[in-house]
Amino acid sequence: GNYRLQMSAAVFVNNLSRQNERSLNSVEIEEEPTTPRARAEIVVEMEICIDSVSSAINAEKAGASRVELCSNLIEGGTTPSLGTFQVIKELTAIPVFVMVRPRGGDFLYSDTEFDVMRKEIEIFKEHKADGFVFGILNSDGTVDKKRNKELLDLCRPSKVTFHRAFDVTVDGNQALEHIIEMGFDRILTSGMEATVLEGLPFLKQLVDQAGDRIIIVPGGGISEKNLSRILDGCNAKEFHGSARSSEPSGMEYTRSGVPMGGALYPAENVIKTSNINRIRTMIDIAKL
């Protein structure tokens, strides 16, 4: 208990849009106290969300179970480059799950976008991706069973995760049953809230409803500060986070006022990388 109270690492937020970012320090949620489970008897897996080779190397060194490879994390992650994937495979042995998302924004895709998703799966499967992560919705907020099943079958025998498109479905309980029916292995979810901490009550309900039919993976705003509370609060056996820290880039000269992105552009003289110490700390917390 005292160890957890002494944790002072910065809280990170992995929301679908930077517009939704907020400090977890300002989030106060009243909930019934939970009885700590004997986590030492349970192997809790940590998946690291990454967008670089450096983060993959750090995740492996720190002992993460696998990585989810994306690009464009400021928009919640999109399909990564094949070059990044190949270099990670050359330099590490950690399992790599590939995000398949042709753009930021919603999860209703045109015919051409769906063609792109199919092609990306074929390419990454040929290059030995260990798993895939995607999700497609209908315009009414329900799960698109036809298209998801087509991609799911294309991915096999690899493992497949339905990503946080789940969190913006019209009915989470119904969506869970449809995703199980299609045969997905995992669902990545914040409990249909901006962060896992806020979605904790529904996450527990999802874990109970799912039973051993599918793995529920909490993800979205998980940090050293709240991990123990989250694991005890929903009895999840896996969790997902980026565990990133910022460091200055090597640029000596910078020109201000000339951003390369749009209105939501990030600082361009800072590099964010998954941090070995943060990953190790969270893995240790998960074992307590």
Automatic annotation (TrEMBL):
Localization per record = Cytoplasm; Nucleus
Q: Which InterPro entries match?
A: CutC-like, CutC-like_dom_sf
Q: Which UniProt keywords apply?
A: Copper, Cytoplasm, Metal-binding, Nucleus
* Gene Ontology cellular component list: cytoplasm; nucleus
Keyword set includes Nucleus: yes
Sections of the chain in a coiled coil: none
Q: Does the record bear Nucleotidyltransferase in its keywords?
A: no
Q: Name one Pfam family in it.
A: CutC
For this protein, what is any one GO molecular function term? copper ion binding
Q: How does it assemble?
A: Homotetramer.
- What does the function comment of this entry state? May play a role in copper homeostasis. Can bind one Cu(1+) per subunit.
Q: Which family does it belong to?
A: Belongs to the CutC family.
Official protein name in the record:
Copper homeostasis protein cutC homolog
